[in-house]
Design a protein that fits this description.
Layout (H helix, E strand, L loop, with lengths): L4 E10 L2 E11 L4 E5 L6 H9 L6 E6 L2 E2 L5 H7 L1 E3 L12 H17 L8 H14 L15 H15 L3 E5 L10 H14 L3 E5 L3 H7 L2 E6 L2 E6 L1 H6 L1 H6 L8
Parallel strand pairs: 3-8, 3-9, 6-7, 7-8
Antiparallel strand pairs: 1-2, 1-4, 4-5, 9-10
Bound molecules: adenosine-5'-triphosphate.
C-alpha cells in the first residue's frame, strides 16, 4: 500500500550546517510514529519541512504520492497535513468554544466554499463542543483563552488542530512547559485520538514513557540524520541508539 506520507532525500542547510540531512522516511495511514533525538537533532526542522514552513535545500515530501515541493503550508493543511497551532495562534480574548468554532469554520470554508454561508451556526457549535469533549475542555468552554493554564492552552491547540480534521497530525512536544500534574491529561487526550483510529500521527516528544506507551514506531534523529527507525522495542534495544543517544540522556 502506498504510504500516506513519505520523504525522499529530504535535506536543509542553514549556512554550512545541515539541520536535516538526507532523510528518507515513510509512514502508512493510521500509524503512530514518534520522533526522538537530542536537542538540536533536527526534529522541529523536519516537521517544518513536512508542514511547509521551510523549503528543503534538497529532496521532497510526498503526500499520497503527490509532490509537495510547490505547496504552501496552507495548501498542505487543505490536503490533509495538520500541524498543532502554537499558543500564539489562539485568540486570547475569545472563549475556548469561540476559538474551536473558528477553526471548525475555517475547515468548512476550505471544504464547502459556497455552501458555507448556509451552514447553520448551531451545527458548527455542536461540532466544536464535540471536539472540546475529546480534548477534556468541556468545563472551560466559556472561559477566555488567556485565562487558561498552560496545559489547558495546549489542549486547546490540539482541539483547534482536530477541528481542521486533517488525516495527518503533527504534534510538536505537546507536553512542553507543562507541570507534572498536567501531563496525564494531555496523554489521555492523545491516547483517545489514537484509539479513535482515523488519524496518522507524528509526535515529537522528550518523555520516553509517553512515547513507548503510544507509539507504533519510533524514529531517532541525530545530527540531522535518521539514525534508526523501528518498533519501540527495537529502538530501545538498538546499540547504536543506546550509545549515541539514550545512554547519554536523562529523561524526566
Ligand atoms: N531558522 C534557522 N536558522 C539557523 N539555524 C537553525 C534554524 N532552525 C534550526 N536551526 C538549527 O538547526 C538545528 C536543528 O534544530 P531543531 O530545532 O530542528 O532541533 P530539535 O531536534 O527540534 O531540538 P529541540 O529538541 O531542542 O527542540 C539546530 O542546530 C538549530 O540551531
Amino acid at each position: 500500500m502506498e504510504p500516506i506520507i513519505k520523504t525522499s532525500n529530504l535535506s536543509i542547510k542553514f549556512g554550512e550546517h545541515k539541520a536535516v540531512d538526507n532523510i528518507n522516511f515513510e509512514m502508512s495511514a493510521k500509524h503512530f510514529k514518534s520522533i526522538i533525538g537530542p536537542n538540536g537533532a533536527g526534529k522541529t526542522t523536519f516537521f517544518n519541512l513536512i508542514s511547509g514552513e521551510l523549503e528543503p535545500t534538497e529532496g521532497d515530501v510526498f503526500f499520497k504520492g503527490l509532490s509537495l515541493r510547490k505547496k504552501s503550508s496552507v495548501e498542505r493543511t487543505r490536503l490533509g497535513i495538520g500541524r498543532s497551532f502554537q499558543i500564539t495562534n489562539v485568540f486570547p480574548n475569545l472563549t475556548v468554544l469561540e476559538n474551536v468554532r473558528l477553526a471548525v469554520q475555517s475547515k468548512r470554508k476550505v471544504r464547502f466554499h459556497m455552501l458555507n454561508h448556509f451552514l447553520k451556526y448551531k451545527e458548527i457549535t455542536n461540532e466544536a463542543i464535540g471536539i472540546l469533549e475529546q480534548v477534556l475542555l468541556t468545563d472551560k468552554m466559556h472561559q477566555v483563552a488567556n485565562q487558561l493554564s498552560h496545559g489547558e492552552k495546549r489542549k486547546l491547540e490540539i482541539g483547534m488542530l482536530l477541528a481542521l480534521d486533517t488525516e495527518i497530525l503533527l504534534l510538536d512536544e505537546p507536553t512542553a512547559g507543562m507541570s507534572l500534574e498536567e501531563v496525564p491529561a494531555i496523554l489521555d487526550v492523545i491516547r483517545s485520538i489514537k484509539e479513535r483510529g482515523d488519524k496518522t500521527i507524528l509526535l515529537i516528544e522528550h518523555k520516553m514513557d509517553m512515547i513507548i506507551d503510544l507509539s507504533d514506531s519510533i524514529m531517532v534523529l541525530f545530527n540531522g540524520a535518521l539514525l534508526a527507525d523501528g518498533t519501540p522495542e527495537e529502538i530501545m534495544n538498538n546499540e547504536t541508539v543506546q550509545q549515541a543517544y539514550l545512554g547519554g540522556l536523562a529523561y524526566d
